[in-house]
Design brief:
Shape: globular
Oligomer: single chain
Largest sheet: 7 strands, mixed
Structural class: alpha/beta
Distance between the termini: 10 Å
């Protein structure tokens, strides 16, 4: 079968190889899934660079999000059968044609959710839902709270803007170009501002920031825009650089926390995950969690897909057809 493999850390465009791999029969409690569509997310590529080398074992197959159909079941599996469509989660490995995963880590896809939707139903929607829950745990009701969202031009950024507005709070999308600002303003509710490491508009004041960037930019926002008693929740590090410790230490009046979806998933238990997936599917039906898809590449053209992913002008999410 066609697969991908990372044998050393480095630039994803250099170290992710296309390989022929052997199909493995599912063992007790496991199922084999014929994958159809997988997504490309920043969270797929960051481990490839070696950023999480302490918890990443080489070699590995990348890809955390996708959908497929059960083809074979191992001994003792009664919850799934061949032909069932599922979303396999819990570990990487979805950038290949077939995947063996414990049945308990495979979640059924409703018939009215197509493969393209299902392939984007996990990472962004579940992260967005958990971030809003974290804000509500901090504030309780959120009417009129000003919530900043960094990297707001991303798919999850738009979702967060809509969810925040749905809580009667005031979302403020923070983007780094006028082009992103114009697109976000046409797609999402709330206010949009342009800011970067060297320029943060004066007068910005937030009750909370949901941050996907990290680095000096996050440090500047912490120092210049957060109100006393605010919350700063980091859920990504697109800059590849941690939030400066000095910025955190300078604001003892701010509550800092991290939300990593993987950590929550491995602690939550299956019923809680099923409940949040139900919210994700509902959001896909309503359009709340719909993702703009820029292009679907066959897995055999992974090099082109990765080049497109790195293009700053990319307009939408990229998917991989793992069947070809």
């Amino acid at each position: 079968m066609r697969s991908t493999l990372v044998s050393q850390f480095g630039d994803p465009r250099q170290v992710i190889a296309l390989v022929d791999a052997e199909r493995i029969a599912p063992g007790p409690g496991e199922v084999e899934v014929a994958l159809s569509i997988s997504a490309i997310n920043p969270s797929d590529l960051i481990p490839v660079t070696g950023a999480y080398s302490a918890r990443t074992t080489l070699p590995f197959v990348p890809g955390f999000e996708g959908v497929g159909t059960v083809t074979r079941v191992g001994a003792g599996v009664t919850s799934l059968k061949p032909g069932d469509r599922v979303i396999p989660i819990g570990a990487s490995g979805l950038w290949q044609a077939y995947l063996v995963r414990p049945a308990e880590w495979c979640f059924a896809v409703p018939k009215d959710i197509d493969d393209r939707q299902a392939a984007t139903s996990y990472v962004n929607p579940l992260t967005a839902i958990r971030l809003i829950e974290a804000l509500k745990a901090h504030f309780g009701p959120m009417p009129d709270r000003r919530i900043g969202v960094t990297a707001a031009g991303s798919a999850i950024g738009g979702m967060l803007m809509k969810l925040i507005a749905g809580e009667s709070a005031h979302p403020v999308g923070i983007v780094r170009s006028e082009r992103s600002a114009a697109r976000l303003a046409s797609d999402a509710p709330g206010e949009v501002v342009v800011a970067d490491d060297g320029y943060i508009p004066s007068g910005l004041a937030f009750d909370a920031i949901l941050d996907a960037v990290g680095g000096p930019f996050a440090g500047a926002l912490i120092g210049q825009t957060l109100q006393p008693g605010a919350a700063f929740i980091q859920y990504g590090a697109l800059s590849g650089v941690p939030v400066p410790i000095s910025a955190i230490q300078a604001r003892p009046d701010v509550r800092f926390s991290f939300l990593w979806l993987r950590t929550w998933v491995h602690a939550a238990g299956r019923p809680a995950i099923e409940e949040v997936f139900a919210q994700s599917f509902a959001g896909l039906r309503s359009g709340l969690f719909s993702s703009r898809v820029a292009q679907i590449y066959p897995l055999s053209r992974l090099d082109e897909a990765l080049a497109h992913q790195a293009d700053a002008k990319r307009d939408g999410k990229l998917l991989l057809d793992t069947r070809c």
